[in-house]
Amino acid sequence: MIQDAHIIIHAARVGNMEVLEELIRQKVDLNSRDDKGYTPLIIACYNNQYEAAKLLLNSGAHINAQDNGGNSALMGVAFKGYKNIAELLINNGANLDLQHVSGGTALMFAAMFGRNEMLQLLLERGANKTILDARGLSVADLAAQQGNETALAILQN
Fold this sequence. Notes:
Shape: elongated
Number of strands: 0
Order of helices and strands: HHHHHHHHHH
Oligomer: single chain
Largest sheet: none
Radius of gyration: 16 Å
Strand content: under 5%
């Protein structure tokens, strides 16, 4: 099983659709994890592999799976700024307000890393901007810390 996890995670990372399709046919666990807790879906999303992410979701991958730090696929794409994959995840029921071990959310990642299109998308789709992280900071506090004036303006509206 460890070998299968390694193979499917690598295939997801590089977007190898042939290998993913074959592993799915062989009923390999789509929610297997590596030593950091990454699932194939988290890895595909983080590496901007839209088609691989779509295939994994359509084949039963857990959309809200979290790695050992509590990070989800949506948090990863919010950090990276992959809006098309964020839309795919949201349209498939991703939890917009999931928090990682320090209380951060996808919305917070978008604000902290200047992914303002992502911030707008998450807000439009219903992300909660009142959640506080483990330090008691809101998304607006985090945007202000980073000097992200655009995010602050978006959050005001």
